[in-house]
Design brief:
Helix content is 73%, strand content 2%. The chain is an all-alpha fold. A two-stranded antiparallel ribbon has the order 1-2.
Length: 197
Protein backbone atom coordinates (compact mmCIF):
# COMPACT_ATOMS: atom_id res chain seq x y z
CA UNK A 1 0.00 0.00 0.00
CA UNK A 2 1.53 3.26 -1.08
CA UNK A 3 0.93 6.75 0.19
CA UNK A 4 -2.70 7.39 0.89
CA UNK A 5 -4.66 10.26 -0.50
CA UNK A 6 -6.21 12.49 2.11
CA UNK A 7 -9.97 12.56 1.46
CA UNK A 8 -11.01 15.59 -0.55
CA UNK A 9 -7.51 16.99 -0.89
CA UNK A 10 -6.28 15.27 -4.04
CA UNK A 11 -2.82 15.40 -2.45
CA UNK A 12 -0.77 12.32 -1.63
CA UNK A 13 0.07 12.14 2.07
CA UNK A 14 2.33 9.88 4.09
CA UNK A 15 0.47 7.18 6.07
CA UNK A 16 1.25 8.86 9.40
CA UNK A 17 -0.18 12.18 8.24
CA UNK A 18 -3.24 10.52 6.71
CA UNK A 19 -3.92 8.50 9.85
CA UNK A 20 -3.57 11.51 12.12
CA UNK A 21 -5.77 13.62 9.85
CA UNK A 22 -8.42 10.92 9.90
CA UNK A 23 -8.43 9.93 13.56
CA UNK A 24 -7.32 12.94 15.64
CA UNK A 25 -10.49 14.98 14.96
CA UNK A 26 -12.63 11.95 15.79
CA UNK A 27 -10.83 11.37 19.08
CA UNK A 28 -11.48 14.98 20.04
CA UNK A 29 -15.22 14.60 19.38
CA UNK A 30 -15.83 11.50 21.53
CA UNK A 31 -16.42 13.46 24.71
CA UNK A 32 -13.83 11.48 26.66
CA UNK A 33 -11.79 12.94 29.54
CA UNK A 34 -8.30 14.20 28.61
CA UNK A 35 -6.60 11.16 30.16
CA UNK A 36 -8.57 8.75 27.99
CA UNK A 37 -8.04 10.90 24.91
CA UNK A 38 -4.33 10.80 25.71
CA UNK A 39 -4.47 7.02 25.76
CA UNK A 40 -6.22 6.93 22.41
CA UNK A 41 -3.55 9.17 20.89
CA UNK A 42 -0.54 7.76 22.74
CA UNK A 43 -1.35 4.07 22.64
CA UNK A 44 -4.04 3.13 20.13
CA UNK A 45 -3.26 5.73 17.44
CA UNK A 46 0.49 5.30 17.94
CA UNK A 47 0.16 1.54 17.42
CA UNK A 48 -1.95 2.06 14.29
CA UNK A 49 0.67 4.47 12.88
CA UNK A 50 3.51 2.08 13.76
CA UNK A 51 1.81 -0.95 12.20
CA UNK A 52 0.84 1.01 9.07
CA UNK A 53 4.40 2.28 8.67
CA UNK A 54 5.94 -1.16 9.17
CA UNK A 55 3.45 -2.74 6.76
CA UNK A 56 4.24 -0.18 4.08
CA UNK A 57 8.03 -0.30 4.47
CA UNK A 58 8.29 -4.10 4.63
CA UNK A 59 5.96 -4.50 1.66
CA UNK A 60 8.04 -2.01 -0.33
CA UNK A 61 11.26 -3.87 0.52
CA UNK A 62 9.65 -7.20 -0.35
CA UNK A 63 8.41 -5.99 -3.73
CA UNK A 64 11.71 -4.36 -4.71
CA UNK A 65 13.79 -7.36 -3.71
CA UNK A 66 11.45 -9.80 -5.47
CA UNK A 67 11.40 -7.59 -8.58
CA UNK A 68 15.20 -7.57 -8.67
CA UNK A 69 15.33 -11.36 -8.22
CA UNK A 70 12.70 -12.05 -10.88
CA UNK A 71 14.11 -9.58 -13.40
CA UNK A 72 17.67 -10.83 -12.92
CA UNK A 73 16.46 -14.41 -13.20
CA UNK A 74 15.03 -13.61 -16.64
CA UNK A 75 17.84 -11.36 -17.93
CA UNK A 76 20.83 -13.51 -16.91
CA UNK A 77 19.87 -16.60 -18.96
CA UNK A 78 19.07 -14.35 -21.93
CA UNK A 79 22.52 -12.76 -21.75
CA UNK A 80 24.23 -16.13 -21.31
CA UNK A 81 22.38 -17.42 -24.37
CA UNK A 82 23.73 -14.66 -26.61
CA UNK A 83 26.35 -15.91 -29.04
CA UNK A 84 28.62 -12.87 -29.08
CA UNK A 85 32.34 -12.85 -29.81
CA UNK A 86 35.09 -10.28 -29.41
CA UNK A 87 35.16 -7.47 -26.92
CA UNK A 88 31.37 -7.54 -26.48
CA UNK A 89 31.58 -11.05 -25.00
CA UNK A 90 33.87 -9.75 -22.23
CA UNK A 91 31.32 -7.02 -21.36
CA UNK A 92 28.45 -9.50 -21.34
CA UNK A 93 30.42 -11.87 -19.11
CA UNK A 94 31.03 -9.09 -16.56
CA UNK A 95 27.41 -7.95 -16.81
CA UNK A 96 26.18 -11.49 -16.10
CA UNK A 97 28.60 -11.73 -13.17
CA UNK A 98 27.41 -8.39 -11.72
CA UNK A 99 23.72 -9.19 -12.22
CA UNK A 100 24.24 -12.59 -10.61
CA UNK A 101 25.70 -10.93 -7.52
CA UNK A 102 22.83 -8.44 -7.32
CA UNK A 103 20.22 -11.19 -7.69
CA UNK A 104 21.91 -13.37 -5.07
CA UNK A 105 22.18 -10.43 -2.68
CA UNK A 106 18.51 -9.47 -3.15
CA UNK A 107 17.39 -13.06 -2.56
CA UNK A 108 19.62 -13.36 0.52
CA UNK A 109 18.35 -10.12 2.04
CA UNK A 110 14.71 -11.11 1.49
CA UNK A 111 15.41 -14.57 2.89
CA UNK A 112 17.11 -13.17 5.97
CA UNK A 113 14.54 -10.52 6.87
CA UNK A 114 11.47 -12.47 5.63
CA UNK A 115 9.78 -9.35 4.32
CA UNK A 116 7.24 -11.55 2.53
CA UNK A 117 6.05 -12.86 5.90
CA UNK A 118 6.41 -9.64 7.85
CA UNK A 119 4.38 -7.22 5.77
CA UNK A 120 1.12 -9.27 5.94
CA UNK A 121 1.71 -9.61 9.69
CA UNK A 122 1.96 -5.83 10.13
CA UNK A 123 -0.95 -5.21 7.75
CA UNK A 124 -3.11 -7.62 9.77
CA UNK A 125 -2.21 -5.82 13.02
CA UNK A 126 -3.00 -2.40 11.54
CA UNK A 127 -6.37 -3.56 10.26
CA UNK A 128 -7.28 -5.22 13.57
CA UNK A 129 -6.48 -2.04 15.49
CA UNK A 130 -8.35 0.17 13.02
CA UNK A 131 -11.37 -2.14 13.08
CA UNK A 132 -11.43 -2.05 16.88
CA UNK A 133 -11.16 1.72 16.78
CA UNK A 134 -13.97 2.14 14.26
CA UNK A 135 -16.27 -0.09 16.29
CA UNK A 136 -15.49 1.97 19.39
CA UNK A 137 -15.97 5.32 17.60
CA UNK A 138 -19.29 4.21 16.13
CA UNK A 139 -20.44 2.27 19.20
CA UNK A 140 -21.05 -0.75 17.02
CA UNK A 141 -20.19 -4.43 17.24
CA UNK A 142 -19.27 -5.34 20.81
CA UNK A 143 -19.74 -1.69 21.85
CA UNK A 144 -23.31 -1.47 20.55
CA UNK A 145 -25.93 -0.38 23.02
CA UNK A 146 -23.56 1.69 25.16
CA UNK A 147 -24.86 5.05 26.37
CA UNK A 148 -21.58 6.74 25.48
CA UNK A 149 -17.93 6.19 24.70
CA UNK A 150 -16.87 6.69 28.32
CA UNK A 151 -19.00 3.70 29.35
CA UNK A 152 -17.19 1.26 27.06
CA UNK A 153 -13.77 2.89 27.17
CA UNK A 154 -12.35 0.32 29.67
CA UNK A 155 -13.49 -2.51 27.39
CA UNK A 156 -11.90 -0.81 24.37
CA UNK A 157 -8.63 -0.24 26.25
CA UNK A 158 -8.55 -3.89 27.30
CA UNK A 159 -9.20 -5.05 23.73
CA UNK A 160 -6.44 -2.85 22.34
CA UNK A 161 -3.96 -4.20 24.88
CA UNK A 162 -5.06 -7.77 24.11
CA UNK A 163 -4.51 -7.18 20.38
CA UNK A 164 -1.05 -5.72 20.99
CA UNK A 165 -0.06 -8.49 23.41
CA UNK A 166 -1.30 -11.18 21.02
CA UNK A 167 0.58 -9.55 18.17
CA UNK A 168 3.84 -9.60 20.13
CA UNK A 169 3.33 -13.29 20.95
CA UNK A 170 2.54 -14.16 17.32
CA UNK A 171 5.52 -12.15 16.08
CA UNK A 172 7.98 -14.00 18.30
CA UNK A 173 6.42 -17.46 17.95
CA UNK A 174 5.64 -17.38 14.24
CA UNK A 175 7.56 -14.69 12.39
CA UNK A 176 10.83 -14.66 14.33
CA UNK A 177 10.71 -18.39 15.16
CA UNK A 178 10.33 -19.10 11.45
CA UNK A 179 13.62 -17.27 10.88
CA UNK A 180 15.52 -19.19 13.55
CA UNK A 181 14.45 -22.66 12.45
CA UNK A 182 17.17 -24.58 10.62
CA UNK A 183 17.13 -24.22 6.87
CA UNK A 184 18.04 -27.00 4.47
CA UNK A 185 21.69 -27.73 4.90
CA UNK A 186 21.50 -27.25 8.67
CA UNK A 187 22.03 -23.49 8.85
CA UNK A 188 19.62 -21.23 10.72
CA UNK A 189 18.88 -17.56 10.47
CA UNK A 190 18.57 -15.10 13.32
CA UNK A 191 15.65 -12.67 13.10
CA UNK A 192 15.45 -9.20 14.58
CA UNK A 193 12.94 -8.09 17.14
CA UNK A 194 10.55 -5.30 16.15
CA UNK A 195 11.16 -1.76 17.29
CA UNK A 196 7.82 -1.79 19.08
CA UNK A 197 5.05 -4.24 19.92
Amino acid sequence: MGAASTPGSGVEAAPKDWIEAQFLPLIGQLGLPPLQQGFLRGRWLDQVRWAEGKAESTQRWYRWLRLITITGGVVIPALVGLNVTGTASEGIRWTVFGLGLVVALAAAIEGFFHYGERWPHYRHLAELLKSEGWQFFQLSGQYAGAAGHADVYPLFAAHVEAIVQHDVEVFFTAVVAGQTQPQEGGQGEQGQAPAGP
